[in-house]
Specification:
single chain; mainly alpha; elongated
Length: 277
């Protein structure tokens, strides 16, 4: 099979992801998880949880928790800001036949929203088959990244360029070259440089070893701006999957301010003089 589900827009988008080997599909849909799957599963789970927090829904196991269709239904409603009731009634049952009925309701949404799903069907999600489930979630996220960050006729490739440009601009001050969304981030310095450029005083640029850099940057982005830690700082190869990286970096770009007001040392002295006058 091909990974054609990565083509979420009408134009084909070249991705590191397209070189990803396919998982042989067994009848149960379970094989040895490959590294790109581990990376995407974590990233997508945390992305979804950040969106679903407003409905008190938390995904623990992506493949299991998506089977009933209820999580997907809520995820799409939160992202679109509209009700999906027009596509049919959801049922609460735990039987497979009820899961299939629910997924049929959810899947009616995709053609209307012009979200292209290739080689992904209702049964793939009901069975929790990793490759198509990840493909489905990526198709949804990519669609919304284009909607949030794109303008007019932009496709995913255009959004990717925008994200890269944003990273370059913010990392430049510290002399950290960003040429792509993958190995340019391998030592973690680019993450620190971006945050430092936005808040020089509050996010000091003190690079160390990669793991320390990842931990510092991801914790800073979460604590200060509420961006979930979609990438695992303990995984030295966290940068290898471009789809996960794009999801995280696009979220940073979408969430972070252009700059944070810096304390003005002169202002502080003036205030002290005034207070003592």
């Amino acid at each position: 099979g091909t990974n054609s589900f990565l083509q979420t827009t009408k134009k084909s988008v070249p991705f590191v992801g397209e070189k990803m080997p396919d998982t042989p599909r067994t009848s149960k849909g379970k094989g040895q998880e490959q590294h790109w799957q581990v990376l995407q599963k974590r990233t997508f789970t945390r992305y979804m949880n950040s969106k679903l927090a407003c409905r008190n829904i938390q995904v623990e196991d992506l493949y299991e928790d998506l089977k009933s269709g209820v999580v997907l239904y809520n995820f799409l409603e939160v992202l679109t800001g509209e009700s999906l009731k027009r596509f049919g009634k959801m049922t609460k049952g735990n039987m497979r036949i009820q899961h299939v009925a629910n997924q049929n309701v959810v899947f009616k949404f995709f053609p209307e929203a012009d979200i292209k799903l290739e080689n992904i069907g209702v049964m793939d999600v009901v069975d929790g088959t990793p490759t198509p489930v990840l493909g489905l979630i990526w198709s949804i996220i990519a669609f919304y990244l284009v909607k949030e960050l794109g303008s007019g006729s932009d496709d995913l490739a255009a959004v990717k360029k925008k994200v890269l440009k944003w990273c370059k601009r913010h990392a430049r001050k510290r002399g950290v070259p960003v040429n792509n969304l993958t190995d340019s981030f391998a030592d973690g310095k680019a993450f620190l440089a971006i945050l430092n450029d936005i808040d020089n005083a509050g996010s000091p640029y003190e690079p160390s070893d990669p793991c320390t850099n990842f931990k510092a940057a991801f914790a800073d982005a979460e604590d200060k701006y509420g961006v979930p830690q979609m990438l695992d700082p303990e995984d030295p190869a966290l940068w290898q999957d471009e789809i996960s990286m794009l999801t995280y970096l696009a979220t940073l770009m979408d969430t972070l301010p252009d700059s944070v007001a810096q304390p003005d040392p002169n202002l502080l002295i003036d205030e002290i003089i005034e207070d003592n006058a």
